[in-house]
Design a protein that fits this description.
Number of domains: 2
Shape: globular
Structural class: alpha/beta
Largest sheet: 9 strands, parallel
CATH class of the largest domain: Alpha Beta
Strand content: 5-15%
Low-confidence stretches: none
CATH superfamily of the largest domain: Metal-dependent hydrolases
Number of strands: 9
Mean pLDDT: 94
CATH architecture of the largest domain: Alpha-Beta Barrel
Length: 405
């Protein structure tokens, strides 16, 4: 572990910091000593963590906050504000602990941080439900350093259908997979060089995304459904779409440590069982398409033997005991992921001359903007005439749709 970086693609530490104090930034200095939960700097150091993706997340407001989004996802919440504040926490974590953490965005950045003895610190977004039904927010998050986007969390969004939280999931009003808007999101993420994370998504969303993406896709924290039958895990028919060879997406599945997803029961889930998931996935996609993703601080507990960020070596020992050679272990630790990152970056370069998608969520009632004030008095006269004409036209169409005229 001193020769090649171990990279965890899903660490929810920022939401813990946000929950520990009314002024979350005041909590960040404590990261150097001890924080309650699964992750702090001493634990990461003890676990020989070489890199981590810290997640930007805000809860599904209809599930966590009793604030319904509505059938067309137009209900407003503070999710976008909250996600920006979480991103601010991540950036300040890195800035305030320069002896231990170093910002990274590419595989080269990860290697540079590792060579300097620091934890490469990257950013992922978990969910699209708090993005305001907008591709503009996706583009701006990409500019701020976000490296992957999970297409859903436990709720559906205007972009895609979710697999839910494990129980019954009410179907989306806009189909079982990607929406029309979501089909615009996939090439936009390819153009931006943002990895497409299919954790939490419905099976159809997975298949739709794989079909559309020009770049490798990722599952930043998932298991194998054949080992533990849970909708959050990846089914074999989807795994068969990933790997080397014609017609396959050269993506990666990174194994989670969440006991409910690992099994056979939450009480008996352990490090050996995590290795079972990795080996099953590898038996289908190949050993160059698997990796490690804890979900630390985003779950009540890790499996036995992987209780917190100090325990990563236990999984490496387990794989070595099963006969994985040094190269294969280095690959699962992080080399496979960095290869995927490089391939995503190559697609970005090839698409650099393409313009941003102009697509909008067609259910939005706020576009074109009507910001001219009373009687549109704040607009130039020529624009005022056009807007007033449009408003009358739109009103007639709306009444016609309602059968009023």
């Amino acid at each position: 572990m001193s020769e090649s970086p171990l990279i965890d693609t899903h660490v929810d530490l920022p939401q813990i910091i946000r929950g520990l104090g009314r002024r979350p930034l005041d909590v960040i200095p404590d990261l150097a000593t001890r924080l309650p939960g699964h992750v702090d700097i001493p634990k990461m150091r003890e676990g020989h963590l070489g890199g981590a993706f810290f997640t930007v997340w805000a809860p599904c407001a209809d599930q966590f906050l009793d604030q319904p989004y509505g059938k067309d996802f137009l209900g407003m919440s503070e999710g976008l504000r909250d996600s920006l504040e979480v991103l601010d926490i991540i950036k300040n974590m890195i800035k305030q602990h320069p002896d231990h953490m170093q910002a990274a965005h590419s595989s080269a950045d990860i290697r540079a941080a590792f060579a300097s003895g620091k934890i490469a610190s990257l950013i992922g977004i978990e969910g699209t439900h708090f993005l305001g039904n907008s591709l503009s927010t996706v583009r701006l998050f990409a500019e701020m350093g976000v490296r992957y986007l999970t297409l859903t969390h436990t709720c559906h969004s205007s972009f895609a259908a979710s697999s839910g939280g494990g129980g019954y999931m009410e179907p989306s009003n806009h189909g079982p997979g990607l929406t029309d808007f979501g089909q615009e999101l996939i090439p936009e993420l390819n153009r931006l060089g943002v990895m497409i994370d299919l954790s939490h998504t419905s099976d159809q969303t997975m298949k739709d995304s794989i079909k559309l993406s020009k770049a490798p896709v990722v599952w930043t924290h998932a298991g194998a459904r054949a080992i533990q039958d849970h909708p959050r895990n990846v089914p074999d028919d989807v795994l068969k779409l990933i790997g080397d060879g014609p017609g396959k997406n050269p993506g990666i599945i990174l194994s989670v440590f969440y006991p409910v997803f690992i099994g056979p029961t939450p009480e008996t889930a352990n490090v050996s069982r995590v290795a079972d998931h990795i080996e099953h996935v590898a038996s289908i996609v190949g050993r160059t398409h698997v990796g490690i993703a804890s979900d630390f601080d985003g779950m009540y507990a890790g499996v036995h033997g992987l209780e917190d960020a100090s325990k990563y070596p236990n999984l490496i020992v387990e794989l070595l005991a099963r006969g994985w050679n040094d190269t294969e272990v280095y690959n699962v630790m992080g080399e496979n992921l960095m290869r995927v990152m490089d391939e995503v970056d190559k697609v970005k370069v090839r698409m650099k001359d393409q313009l941003p998608s102009s697509a909008i969520w067609e259910k939005r009632p706020d576009l074109p903007a009507n910001w001219g004030g009373p009687e549109q008095a704040d607009l130039p006269l020529e624009v005022r005439d056009l807007v007033n004409s449009r408003l009358k036209h739109d009103e007639l169409i709306f009444k016609d749709q309602l059968g009023i005229i």
